[in-house]
Amino acid sequence: MLKLKPYKACDAETIISWIKNEYNFRQWSADRYKNYPISANDMNDYYNREKSKNQMWIMSAYDESGIVGHFTLRFPKKEIQEIRLGFVIVDDKKRRKGYGKELVQLAIQYAFDSIKGSKISLGVFENNMAAIRCYKSCGFQEVKLKNIESYKCMGEIWNCIEMERNSLV
Question: What rounded mean pLDDT belongs to the chain?
Answer without folding.
Answer: 95
